[in-house]
Design brief:
The protein is α/β, with parallel strands linked by helices and about 475 residues long. It has 16 helices and 20 strands. The chain binds NADPH dihydro-nicotinamide-adenine-dinucleotide phosphate. The site of NADPH dihydro-nicotinamide-adenine-dinucleotide phosphate has 31 residues, from helix 8, strand 10 and helix 9.
């Protein structure tokens, strides 16, 4: 298997070889090296930012509808090539092809389409002031740095590029070192769709490359998808230059199942909220609170459903559960499973697995203070927790530093909305979970982040307002 790109970086509309350290890219299923890339040198990061700064003004000067057209064309190209792009995403991430065919690039295409369509609707405000008046202009920020995580590499690149570009910004994107291939494809596709050279650039590398990108004098904004510790570092670095930030960080989200819930739907949601993409999803509902009256029935059905999950070769269309992205990540997940057992929780189904594979794992007899109930695992590990009443569960659901997402399953209409209002989370699903349509804002509160991706709300995070005061009646001065 060979997925070697034309070159490691994409700067000024063409592939450019990196001048830094080697970056091997391995297929998580076999461990086989499928590409060998090189990191960007500090000079290449600076060059990419300078190129973006030079290209940005002409791009911003286009009519918004023209910028939108480029994004729409890119979405159409992605759809045409979805099968090949999905295969590459599977090789890069190890996620099952049945997921990458429908979720990753498709979600990216929807973002390009949504923001492409929004382009021509972005306007300012006219403010009457008696005879004088003022108006606002929504202006681009300049050059935005995008830094991505490895779980949805191509979707993340599209989610950041689409609102940034449609507002007339340029972008320098650094994918995770684990999954560097999709962003290069996006750069090629955007160029083919008519994006001027230099407006979207890709640099590769580990954290240090991200650091030099964040510190580059041409950068006006940093949008990061990653863990809370990285978010803290990047936010602090951006603060010293007063840069705008969007932080899409981790979570330990509660999924609350009341006695009156539709049992089968609640089990389906818990399964999807923990095991899709082998559990490597930031918004996963990993603390599943189940009310006492429904608990045994819920666990019985959950165990039965999870036992039938098909684990194996991610390129086999029948496979539902693939490998973990890297051996290091699998080790971390296994250490969390071991911690759960050592602290007294019991495994209902699953376990540490072998090699690259960790099966869907469900813990019972857990308490809120256990490591598995407090820390983000970012793997296929669900912790179930019993509860008795609404006040109690809301208090326990909120007793975490994270605040990315939450879910509530109940047939009681007023309770559903009451709980949705009380949970501290950027998104709360009612009788659903982990659906992130582009029309809906997505992002976290508390340690889970700042800013919103998707929806018209994202435009605010890739633009700044200028107020223009228009004097109509001459200037009266006391001096
Ligand atoms: P990391 O925080 O390890 O890395 C995120 C990105 O930041 C990577 O590209 C990484 O590069 C880069 N990076 C690391 N250090 C620095 C630095 N000092 N300056 C600039 N960039 C840096 O996250 P993971 O890739 O491990 O992804 C998993 C995490 O992402 C989980 O916590 C998950 O919850 C979160 N996530 C959040 C989402 C959301 O929307 N809220 C969605 C998806 C994931 P490199 O990898 O090359 O070291």
């Amino acid at each position: 298997m060979n997925a070697q790109p034309a070159a490691s970086l994409f700067i000024d509309g063409r592939p450019v070889e990196g001048q830094g350290d080697t970056l091997p890219v391995c297929y998580p299923y076999t461990g086989q090296e499928i590409a060998s890339l090189r990191e960007a040198s500090p000079e290449q990061v600076a060059q990419a930012c300078a190129v973006a700064a030079a290209a940005q003004p002409a791009w911003a000067a286009l009519a918004p509808v023209e910028r939108g057209r480029v994004l729409n064309r890119a979405a159409a190209i992605i759809r045409d090539r979805n099968a090949a792009l999905a295969r590459l995403e599977t090789l890069d991430t190890g996620k099952p092809i049945q997921e990458t065919l429908v979720a990753d690039w498709e979600s990216g295409a929807q973002a390009l389409e949504f923001f492409g369509g929004l382009a021509a609707t972005i306007t300012g405000q006219m403010i009457p002031l008696g005879q004088d008046w003022a108006y606002t202009r929504r202006e681009p920020l300049g050059v935005c740095a995008g830094i991505g995580a490895w779980n949805y590499p191509s979707q993340i690149a599209c989610w950041k590029a689409a609102p940034a570009l449609v507002m007339g910004n340029a972008m320098v994107f650094k994918p995770s070192e684990e999954t560097p291939l999709g962003a290069l494809k996006l750069a090629e596709i955007l160029l083919e769709a008519g994006l001027p050279a230099g407006v979207f650039n890709v640099v590769q590398g580990r954290g240090a490359v991200g650091e030099s990108l964040v510190g580059d004098p041409n950068i006006a904004k940093v949008s990061l998808t990653g863990s809370v510790p990285t978010g803290r570092r990047v936010y602090a670095a951006a603060a010293s230059f007063m840069r705008h930030v969007t932080m899409e960080l981790g979570g330990k989200s509660p999924l609350i199942v009341f006695d009156d819930a539709n049992l089968e739907d609640a089990v389906s949601a818990a399964v999807l909220a923990n095991f899709y993409s082998a559990g490597q999803i930031c918004s996963n509902g990993t603390r599943v609170f189940v009310q006492e009256g429904i608990r045994q029935g819920f666990l019985d059905r959950l165990a039965e459903r999870v036992r039938h999950v098909r684990i194996g070769d991610p390129l086999d269309p029948a496979t539902q559960h693939g490998p973990i992205v890297s051996p290091a990540q699998a080790d971390k997940i296994r250490a969390m499973i071991a911690a759960g057992q050592a602290e007294g929780a019991r495994i209902l189904c699953g376990g540490p697995g072998e090699g690259a594979f960790i099966p869907p794992t469900v813990f019972i007899d857990a308490t809120d203070d256990m490591t598995i109930a407090r820390d983000e695992i970012f793997g296929p590990v669900m912790t179930t927790l019993a509860f008795y009443d609404e006040d109690e569960v809301v208090g326990r659901a909120n007793a975490t530093g994270f605040g990315l997402a939450a879910g509530v399953f109940t047939r009681d209409l007023t309770r559903a909305h009451r709980v949705a209002a009380r949970v501290q989370a950027g998104t709360c699903w009612i009788n659903a979970y982990n659906l992130t349509p582009v029309e809906m804002p997505f992002g976290g509160v508390k340690l889970s982040g700042i800013g919103r991706e998707n929806s018209a709300a994202a435009i605010e995070h890739y633009s700044q307002l200028k107020s223009v005061y228009v004097g109509m009646t001459g200037v009266e001065s006391p001096y």
